[in-house]
Sequence to fold (201 residues):
Amino acid sequence: MEALNRSLFLWINATPESPGWLITLATLIARDLIAIVPVLIVALWLWGPKGQLNSQRELVLKTGIALGYALTISWCIGNLYPHPRPFMIGLGYQFLHHAPDDSYPSDHGTAIFTFAIAFMCWHRVWSGIMLMLIGAAIAWSRIYLGVHWPMDMLGGLLVGMLSCLFAQVAWYFCGRRLLENISWLYRVVFAFPIRKGWVRD
Fold:
């Protein structure tokens, strides 16, 4: 498996002969595209058709629970089974600065794939597929730039699947109460912008 991981990495990883524009594009994708996660979460909570707000906020909370599970699992795996990044063992070429910490599973991959699976399960299949394509682009870019292994991204996908399953089970036991409590707190904290009509009640 490690030999396959290294072979795939070397096949995808950029070299000094790679086009400069492609390295620039990959850098933009690797660093900034993940911002779609907090932007979508905030937008879905604050705005939307009145008849859909409750389901949107349920989606936001389920996704938040899944992300919490996913990043906790990722942290535990990284500490229990540390795996060096390619540049830490002198393999391939590195075009994106990154701390020399554990690589498996990828935090970026874990977050975006958890987000994509959550939308596929609890929102619309097409929205989940679009986010999965964004996840694939982020995964490619971070391998291409030399800071992750292919298996780091596969690990992120598997952690995302498991975390969405955990979130669904947790929602069955305490989801409705959590939605009511968070909604009440939101209305207290955002009373002024709600009254002004800047955000939805």
In short: The helical segments are 2-12, 20-32, 36-46, 53-80, 107-122, 125-144, 150-189, 191-196. The two ends are 51 Å apart (CA to CA). The chain has a mean pLDDT of 93.
